[in-house]
Amino acid sequence: MTETPAPEGTPAPAGAPDPDAPIRVFLVDDHGLFRSGVRAELDRGVAGSPEIEVAGEAGSVEEAVAGIAHLRPDVVLLDVHMPDGGGAEVLRRVRPNQPEVVFLALSVSDAAEDVIAVIRAGARGYVTKTISATELGDAVRRVRAGDPVFSPRLAGFVLDAFSDRPGAAPAVDPELDLLTRRERDVLRLLARGYAYKEIAGELFISVKTVETHVSSVLRKTQLSNRYELSRWASDRRLV
Amino acid sequence: MLTRRRSGRLVAGVAGGVADHLGIPVLWVRVAFVLLAGAQGSGVLAYALLWMFVRQEGLDVRRAVDRRERQQALGLTVLALGVGLAAATLNNGVIGWIVGPLGVAGVGVAVVWREADEAQRRRWAVGARAGVLGMGGSGGRAMVIRIVAGVLFVASGIAVFLLGQLNLGQLQFGVLAVLATIVGVAVLTVPWWVRLVRELGEERRERIVESERAEIAAHLHDSVLQTLALIQRQAADPREVQRLARGQERELRTWLYGPTGYGRGGTKAPTLDERLSVALGAAAAEVEDTYAITVNPVFVGDVPLDDGLRALVLASREAIVNAAKHAGVEEISVYVEVEAEQDGGEVHVFVRDRGKGFDPDAVPADRHGLADSIHRRMERHHGTVRLRSTPGEGTEVHLAMPVGAAEGQDQDGARQDDARQDDARQDDARQDDARQDDARHDERGDPVPAPTDEHEDAPR
What is the DSSP pairing of strand B384-390 with strand B394-402? Predict the structure, then answer.
């Protein structure tokens, strides 16, 4: 993807390179056992097209930065918790040089601040490690095609962070610091476990429109000044 | 953190350390100290204080220092002392001749302190933990000579200073001499005092880390290791393994990331029933344990429980149980949203599965689960239930309950249910007796008096 979370926020045209070429995936996780597990699952062939192949893997931030620069994968599956700064550090170091690489955070952590931190650092999506192989394959294809991947939990976190509680700081930039009604609806359905197609049916809009809304939510999550979002990140010196 | 340089230093590495800390050339810092020395000698004082209280850097970092810089630094040091003395003399003639001998004493102190730095370095290098005063022995004769010389400097400085006060009487001289000696000894031993305090602090920190480690080890042993052992023994039964693993995962997650968990620095045990998310999370966990399925609750917002919300939790639990029993799926999504407003608001719970689904109109009237446990309970507390189900596509139950609603008429009924629920939770299935669950779940699967047909099609 040539797309970065640019202010316009529209997803890049899907499959800008060759849509049928296999998607090359790079695994970053400090647990060798988990890496080999994911690798085996992805190599065994996850049904669907295009195919997914594991191009390489890394167990530390240094290895990951070097490996991604060398192998130029399409998608990086990124662990959130690692020594030396974790997933956010990898994002911080790789993204300026290789904006075309797409990151999908894959983490065992359930903590909102961890998840929001990698999303804000530039990951295109977040899924938990308990995800099934088929769903993981779908998620990889979807981020590769330019669409963000929101697990229900992530949708919940984002809704929570953008919710207007009594006493919340007023929005500085309404364009970025508030979700539109439609975006909120889409997020709610995502949090309820709906697939994009089901959301489209429920709200009487097209799947493409759902994708646009989700992209715009992702962009707002990454760029918004909302206190809750900034605080999580800045508390941990991630921004 | 500010540390004093260990290599590439002239006196104590203070200037170098400050320069490293501020990211500016060391020359600037040295010049600044010289200039400050001109202001009532405050530069010299500042240097001494930094020397006393800033620790040396821990590792031997090699710095190349060329001769020119070394000479420059030496010149600046002499200049600083000179400037300090001159400033003092200019300001006040009396202070001038006091400062003279005290200056000599100061040089002596510097020599001894420097020796203490060396002793510290050697200790680190050898890795031996000598006693607090164990600076002898490893340094050799040169060190002893240097220390003796330093002490002599101090002593003679003080002596000359005192002799300058010849107009004093015998008694006053004696008292002053004792005081001066005490001050001299105190100043000379400053490095050892500082080290003593630091070591005490470090020891305390190590103890804290140690107990922390012990706590984590104990927790892992009690929970994770036990579960792994159980899993090995149950390896032939994938369902049981799944249940054990999921239960352990949930427990560890709560411990790590939960509202009062380890990762939050919380120490007190979480109290159930306080908040909606805790109560509903516990209910979901219980169903998960009982039916060996995965329930993924997602919460947006949270409120303290009231009677209406307790009923909501029980109704949600029933909905999750229904999904677990009848939908034939491995996973159930639960989404809870609190629409908080200043006065009240509403809580929505969505329980969704992608299982078999059914035709809501075709449910026999004697099926109490849906009617009693969900519909009536919600109605009693002014909540609403909406059910959507399509055969083959799954079911979604939408429960809505106003927050802080007027008390329902049928309070007692609701209370009884609550009490029963609490009982059920107290004998919460632990992993080690998970096998007995089959027998037990019949007793506690449904909080309402369950009709017999509810149990015959339980997923076992």
Answer: antiparallel
Q: Which of B16, A13, A36 is nearest to B8 (CA)?
A: B16
The token pair at B131 is 């006693």
ipTM over 0.85: no
Residue A108 token pair: 């065992």
The CATH superfamily assigned to A23-149 is Response regulator (3.40.50.2300)
Distance from CA of B278 to the nearest CA of A (A): 15
For B365-405, how does the pLDDT look when each residue is reduced to its tens digit (9 = 90+)?
556 567 677 888 888 888 888 888 888 888 888 999 888 75
Q: Where are the domains of chain B?
A: 14-205, 206-266, 273-456
Which of A192, A194, A228 best probes binding to B when mutated, by most B CB atoms within 10 angstroms? A192
CA dihedral (B399, B403, B406, B410) positive or negative:
positive
At A57-116, the pLDDT tens digits run 888 888 899 999 998 999 999 888 887 777 888 888 888 888 889 999 988 776 777 788
Backbone angles phi, psi at A5, to 5 degrees: -70, 70
E strands, B266-324, in order: 294-300
* CA torsion, ordered A165, A170, A173, A178, to nearest 10 deg: 20
The CATH number that domain A154-235 falls under is 1.10.10.10
| Among chain B residues, CA nearest to A189 | B335
Q: Hey, where are the domains in chain A?
A: 23-149, 154-235
CB atoms within 10 A of CB A215: 20
Task: Tell me how far apart the 2 most distant CA atoms of chain A are, in Å.
Answer: 52
Count Cβ atoms below 10 Å from residue B148 Cβ, excluding itself: 12
A-chain CB neighbours of B352 within 8 Å are: 192-193
Is the domain spanning B273-456 CATH 3.30.565.10? The answer is yes
